[in-house]
Design goal:
heterodimer, A: 380 residues, alpha/beta, six-stranded parallel sheet, 8 strands, globular, B: alpha/beta, Rossmann fold, seven-stranded mixed sheet, 11 helices
Chain lengths: 380, 325
């Protein structure tokens, strides 16, 4: 049960990652590049005020999201956090869905009810893609994923769950209760802590007194492992081991991915709290896509033209998705009233929205209205 | 048919639904081998086994969160808060996650969160609460709070079959004091329907849970001593409210007293008064009055608890003032 520390590197990467065929390695490149290019497109749309709310980037964290989700089977269920758009893409979310979500379109996955990548598609294996939409209170998805994976165990289904949290969410009660509950129940759940250095503006040193988050695995009595989150093959390797353990009935794993958040909490955040030069150093020395390109080029002999073709294909896909998303309409206002409950299926608009006449108010005027006799009584 | 208690009626409902639907399962603290702090789930572990009767760590967030996850996947969890006071620990999970699930993400969340509630039992500040108002305020949750054994059973069965999350408040003062004969067959009480507990013409008392019995006692005394005909409406469901039944009794008696055991400020009496004002102001012959607990954390000593909570005498005082208006 002891926590293991493994640090991947450009030359290591772990044997499971190394063993992936070139075609799968190129797929990893595709998903990482798609994540980055799609986010860059969203920045452009944000600056054109076409993105309705805030914009959240995962710049510099593409390897941890993509490499980990790549270790899941299609029947498995994954619950992303705000910097796991890459994981969602791997699990089958489309750029079109994400663009429509950010632009609050009426035919977006949540019909304009929820923000950004807060959407999902879970249910039976085979008919659903297996990602569960997050909510904003952090840590909450850990207990929920404990419940999802509990059903796998109850029904004897060969399915595994994976849930992402940030370094900040480890401080919540929900995280603690959820992982402890899952550990006691020995559920097939992989919990990933993406340690990217900051929770909004708060550095990890102000989040925990633990030397490293993976040490918490010992306290929960679960398997723990740490890896270089910017090495996509190491991330895959580490996650695959945990997924295999879960599938074999060996219970919960707690993984810590060491990475770095190069953008602010959201696009509005000027990162004034970050020490000078820190972001630039990570960008220059430890960009996960640059690192993987070197691996593909130097170790796999992939030609620059091959990657350029993938890049061009991604731009074409995102261009087409952007055009289509922009053509979509806004939600009809009355759609706001539908679907809070299964029964009743919709709420009624309030009277002042129906027109301010008395019948719309529902106020009844019985016989004798206005004839009330003040002599009968009054306030005491 | 023999009479059974309010508590046994709840157990019978859960048992019938577990037998009927293999997707129904139970989670909570000490609910398995021990049968629950009040023994509501006694015998369930022996009957249905461990996968369907799960003893959990002391983790209300995890209990409710895991129930939601299981509900998304087609299960129908029924989870116990050992005392309903501890539902506060799961407030975020219920209001932010569960209540919004269908609306924001089209995720079904059929689950029941149940637990012993209410005072009059010398339980002190953390074993006596009535936290319903905080949840009634949250769109996406349903809330029921039965006063009779028959309703306890029928509403529990309806709650388990409901496709959304139902908070099921059980009044612990009534657990073993109230009995009833269960209707034959598959006894369901629809959520959202009030019940006329006593017919009357001079004034209406609208209430729910333990104070239904206080109101009935007061009504009998007012009949005997003052010759007043008092109607008592038992709301049974607090979300959704039965507006038709509320307005019907206003139209009938023109005088309304709202009684609840919950504290006054922000309690459901304020919401009922507002609805009556909006829809039936002209039917009123007097302002709507309310008898509630004082705005005080519930104290332990009998003399203190009795002072803070609404009593039969208080209801009689308010009813007499209402008819003298």
């Amino acid at each position: 049960m002891a926590a293991r520390r493994r640090r991947g590197s450009e030359t290591a990467g772990g044997h499971l990652g190394e063993a992936l065929p070139l075609e799968r390695k190129l797929a990893l490149y595709y998903w990482m590049r798609l994540t980055r290019t799609l986010e860059e497109r969203l920045v452009a749309l944000y600056r054109q005020t076409k993105v309705v709310g805030g914009l959240f980037r995962s710049l510099g964290q593409e390897a941890d999201a993509v490499g980990s989700c790549f270790a899941l089977e299609s029947r498995d269920v994954m619950s992303p956090l705000i910097r796991n758009m890459g994981a969602m893409l791997v699990k089958g979310a489309t750029p079109l869905e994400i663009l429509k979500q950010y632009m609050a379109k009426g035919d977006s996955p949540t019909r304009g009810r929820e923000l950004n990548i807060h959407f999902g598609d879970i249910g039976p294996a085979g008919t659903t893609r297996g990602f569960l939409g997050q909510i904003s209170p952090l840590g909450d998805m850990v207990p929920v994923m404990a419940g999802v994976t509990m059903t796998f165990k109850m029904r004897g289904e060969d399915r595994v769950g994976l849930v992402y949290v940030g370094d900040g969410a480890t401080s919540t009660g929900a995280f603690h209760e959820g992982i402890n509950f899952a550990a006691v129940q020995r559920l097939p759940l992989v919990v990933i802590i993406e340690n990217n250095g900051y929770a909004y503006s708060t550095p990890t040193a102000k989040q925990t007194a633990a030397k490293q988050f993976v040490d918490k695995a010992i306290g929960y009595g679960v398997y723990g492992e740490q890896c270089d989150g910017n090495d996509v093959l190491a991330v895959y390797d580490c996650t695959k081991r945990a997924v295999d353990r879960a599938r074999a009935g060996e219970g919960v794993s707690l993984l810590e991915f060491m990475t770095y958040r190069r953008k602010g909490h959201a696009e509005h955040d000027n990162q004034s709290y970050v020490p000078e030069g820190e972001i630039e150093r990570w960008a220059a020395e430890n960009d996960p896509i640059d690192r993987f390109v070197r691996v593909l080029r130097d170790r796999e002999g992939v030609r620059a033209e091959t990657l350029a073709e993938i890049d061009a294909r991604i731009v074409r896909e995102i261009d087409a998705a952007t055009d289509e998303a922009e053509r979509s309409g806004v939600p009809h206002p009355l759609d706001a009233l539908v679907g809070v409950y299964a029964d009743p299926p919709a709420e009624r608009p309030l009277w002042f929205r129906e027109g301010a006449d008395v019948s719309a108010l529902g106020q009844e005027r019985p016989e004798g209205w206005g004839t009330w006799d003040a002599s009968k009584g009054g306030a005491r | 048919m023999a009479e059974i208690t309010y508590l046994e009626a709840i157990r019978e409902a859960i048992d019938e639904e577990m037998a009927r639907d293999p997707n129904v399962f139970l989670m909570g603290e000490d609910i398995g081998a021990y049968g629950g702090a009040f023994k509501v789930t006694e015998g369930m572990l022996a009957t249905y086994g461990e996968p369907r009767v799960i003893d959990t760590p002391i983790s209300e967030i995890a209990i409710v969160g895991a129930a939601a996850g299981a509900a998304h996947m087609g299960m129908r969890p029924v989870v116990e808060m050992q005392f309903i006071d501890f539902i506060a620990n799961a407030y975020d999970m219920l209001t932010n996650y569960v209540a919004t699930a269908r609306y924001r993400a089209f995720l079904p969340c059929p689950m029941v969160v149940r637990g012993p509630s209410g005072g009059y039992v010398r339980g002190g500040p953390f074993h006596s609460q009535n936290p319903e108002a905080g949840f009634i305020h949250t769109p996406g949750l349903k809330v029921v709070y039965p006063a009779t054994a028959e309703d306890a059973k029928g509403l529990m069965k309806a709650a388990i079959r409901d496709d959304d999350c139902v908070l099921f408040f059980e009044h612990k003062y009534l657990y073993r004091r109230i009995k009833g004969v269960m209707p034959a067959g598959d006894h369901l009480v629809p959520i959202g329907q009030a019940r006329t507990a006593r017919e009357g013409t001079d004034l209406s008392i609208i209430t729910y849970a333990a104070t239904v019995h206080k109101a009935l006692e007061a009504a009998e005394r007012l009949q005997q001593q003052d010759g007043l005909s008092v109607e008592v409406i038992d709301l049974r469901s607090l979300a959704p409210l039965d507006d038709e039944a509320i307005l019907a009794t206003v139209r009938k008696t023109h005088r309304v007293l709202i009684v609840h055991e919950d504290t006054r400020t922000g309690g459901i009496a304020g919401e009922l008064t507002a609805r009556i004002n909006e829809h039936a102001f002209a039917h009123l012959d007097a302002p709507v009055l309310r008898v509630t607990a004082h705005d005080i954390p519930l104290p332990y000593a009998p003399s203190l608890e009795d002072f803070v909570l609404p009593q039969v005498d208080d209801i009689c005082v308010a009813a007499r003032r209402l008819v003298a208006w």
